[in-house]
Amino acid sequence: MRHITVTAIVVLTLLSGCANLNKAQTGAVGGAAGGALIGQMIGHNTEATLIGAAVGTMLGYIVGNEMDKYDKQQLNHVYERGASNQQSSWINPDTGNQYAVTPQPAFKNPTTDQICRKAEISAIIDGKKQKTYTTACRDANGQWQLQ
Asked: Are residues 92 and 37 in the same domain?
């Protein structure tokens, strides 16, 4: 009975901070909770619960992070190939979130000598409309990095 109580406390503690997490973090929390429960069921001791939580955290983070990567790849594609002042849009097939990005012409940052582009991003995330303005610059490897 004591092990079930420990497991419940671990799971509740992990789930209590879920309000403002990104998908990778949410996946990690869910994976930790599931891993802890499975570890407890298999090993019937605290050590098995903690090992299950650790493995679940890692796997959950990887899965959650992959979901975010789709949108990052799409945004990178717009910065790389998007025509200036022309909107590009997509819908994330996993989340249903919608994005419309309008990139501006590239410019050279006089401070860093990097090639940069500004963009307006309109999104509908979890049914809520959002708009933001971003700047991305090429790093030393030629990859676009949000500033």
From this structure: no
Q: Report the 3 state secondary structure along the chain.
A: CHHHHHHHHHHHHHHCCCCCCCHHHHHHHHHHHHHHHHHHHHHCCHHHHHHHHHHHHHHHHHHHHHHHHHHHHHHHHHHHHCCCCCCEEEECCCCCCEEEEEECCCEECCCCCCEEEEEEEEEEECCEEEEEEEEEEECCCCCEEEC
What's the total number of domains in the chain?
A: 2
How many beta carbons lie within 10 A of that of residue 27, not counting itself?
23
pLDDT at 11: 45
The structure's pTM equals 0.56
- pLDDT interval class at 137 (50, 70, 90): very high
**Confidence grade of residue 110 (pLDDT, cut at 50, 70, 90):** very high
Full domain range(s) for residue 37 = 2-67
Looking at 35, 67, 99, which one is the last position of a domain? Answer: 67
Same domain for 142 and 116, yes or no, is yes
